[in-house]
Amino acid sequence: MIELIQVSHRYGDHPVLRDVSLSITERRVAVVGANGSGKSTFARLLNGLVIPDEGTVTVDGLDTRTDGKAVRRKVGFVFQDPDTQIVYPTVEEDIAFGLKNLKLDKAEIARRVAGVLDRYGLTEHRTRSAHLLSGGQKQLLAICSVLVMEPAYVVFDEPTTLLDLRNKRKIVEIVAGLPQTAIFISHDLDLLGGFDRVLVFDGGRVVADDCPGPAIARYIELMN
Ligand SMILES: Nc1ncnc2c1ncn2[C@@H]1O[C@H](COP(=O)(O)OP(=O)(O)OP(=O)(O)O)[C@@H](O)[C@H]1O
């Protein structure tokens, strides 16, 4: 379980999150809200990329303030722009990168890399230059690089924004099939029908927390 207790955060004197308390126990949680409403800051709190000014964030009891390293092992993070996540020249090297830091042996690394390449349809691209992949393939690569680490939770921060409709749907299918808990920040409301729970952010607060139908209706009402 991920739990936020009375979390507030500001950048300079600009409040970005105001007294957010919630627990995430569902497997598929989406987050929507206007630009600047605090969604990315919320996402970054979940794996300790941002430490809140006030309140606490815990992941299976580990506090992001004091157990950052262990939290990042548990919570994978997929960014909007996969180019920011690609580190190594080829697809397979990029996927293996994080595993090398875990000091796994070579055979185990090769087994895990081959497993995700196969599962997400990238095997034929494994020796290609990562930067020469299409936008959709790059996002798949970024997701593979996170999933190969076998996190318990995966946070997706607007992973479909740069993709065409076919690739948007593909990412949503992948998320739907994950064994992990997924927290999915998105402006693509039509992709969220299958989620268990949708949080609506407005002005740094959660103003609706419901199943997709009513939560999305509330968001649309706020935007009018
Ligand atoms: N590192 C930072 N330094 C200063 N201000 C920041 C920083 N990151 C975000 N902000 C500000 O905090 C507010 C909330 O930003 P955040 O990215 O969390 O919103 P968001 O809901 O994800 O927006 P979007 O839909 O545009 O991605 C915005 O006003 C933004 O300008």
From TrEMBL:
SMART domains: AAA. One of its GO terms (molecular function) is ATP binding. GO terms for cellular component: ATP-binding cassette (ABC) transporter complex. InterPro entries: AAA+_ATPase, ABC_transporter-like_ATP-bd, ABC_transporter-like_CS, ABC_transpr_CbiO/EcfA_su, ECF_ABC_transporter_ATP-bd, P-loop_NTPase. CDD domains: ABC_cobalt_CbiO_domain1 (cd03225). It comes from the Bacteria. Gene3D superfamilies: P-loop containing nucleotide triphosphate hydrolases. It holds the Pfam family ABC_tran. Keywords: ATP-binding, Nucleotide-binding, Transport. Residues 2-222 form the ABC transporter domain. SUPFAM superfamilies: P-loop containing nucleoside triphosphate hydrolases. Belongs to the ABC transporter superfamily. This is Putative ABC transporter ATP-binding protein. It comes from Skermanella aerolata.
